[in-house]
Specification:
Layout lengths: L2 E3 L4 H6 L4 H4 L3 E6 L2 E11 L4 E10 L8 E9 L5 H23 L5 H27 L5 H15 L2 H12 L5 H10 L3 H10 L5 H13 L3 H8 L6
Antiparallel strand pairs: 1-2, 2-3, 3-4, 4-5
Helix pairs in contact: 4-5, 4-6, 6-9, 7-8
Length: about 230
């Protein structure tokens, strides 16, 4: 089965959400290659008259323990508008796609592994700079030292922003056929256009930035710039 879009009777679910038989039921919404999207009812909020659905996307291409990602969609029983529910569910599906893309594709690239190594290296280097600074200023209180070091590292590190940039740069580009197929199946023109646009250019510029920062972290200039971020204690 390459592609299958299932027509779920949401009206029936809404009318019968108090039926215990539905609480154990799982509906398949969308299948593309080895990607499967399912839906189940998980919460009934009596106090605010809402129900909540769990949307699960499973990537059966992967053997990883976390090959499934879940998102939720909440529906107000006062609304009486199935279109709103469908939009909420489709939005949750797209977010779960992104979770799959981030965790099973982007995070598995050589460049991402390299960035994580660089992040640990940078944080260790910055911690040493902060410790030396505190030693020079005779700050021995461990609580003060720990708080200062943590704040300094968080405020000074550069690689974390590059990781975020790398993730954003590769969004919609690792599993574009999944996004595009879902966009077409649900008539989501905005997503369709975003996917096509994201795959026009390349990631060469960002990869160049990663290489430049890696080289820069080995220089005295980097350490001097990092020291400039130290604050008086």
């Amino acid at each position: 089965m390459i592609l299958k879009v299932f027509d779920v009777d949401y009206s029936f679910i809404i009318k019968n959400y108090l039926n215990p038989e539905l609480w154990e039921k799982e509906w398949t919404l969308f299948v593309y290659k080895k990607f499967v999207v399912t839906l189940k009812l998980i919460y009934i909020y009596v106090y605010c008259n809402k129900i909540e659905f769990e949307i699960k996307v499973t990537d059966n291409n992967s053997t990883s323990w976390n090959r499934s990602q879940t998102r939720s969609a909440t529906y107000s029983l006062k609304t009486n508008n199935i279109t709103i529910l469908k939009k909420a569910i489709n939005s949750a599906i797209i977010k779960a796609f992104k979770d799959i893309e981030d965790g099973l594709y982007i995070a598995k690239t050589d460049e991402y592994y390299k960035l994580i190594d660089m992040k640990y290296e940078e944080r260790a280097k910055l911690e040493e700079i902060a410790k030396e600074f505190l030693d020079e200023n005779n700050i021995t209180n461990e609580n003060i030292r720990d708080s200062y070091i943590e704040a300094y590292v968080d405020n000074t590190e550069k690689v974390e922003n590059l990781i975020n940039d790398y993730e954003c740069q590769n969004h919609l580009r690792m599993i574009p056929d999944l996004y595009l197929t879902f966009a077409i199946a649900t008539d989501n023109k905005e997503l369709e256009n975003d996917v096509l646009k994201a795959n026009e250019d390349t990631k060469e510029e960002l990869l160049k930035k990663i290489e430049e920062l890696e080289e820069y972290m080995q220089t005295e200039e980097y350490e001097e710039e990092a020291k400039d971020n130290l604050e008086e204690v």
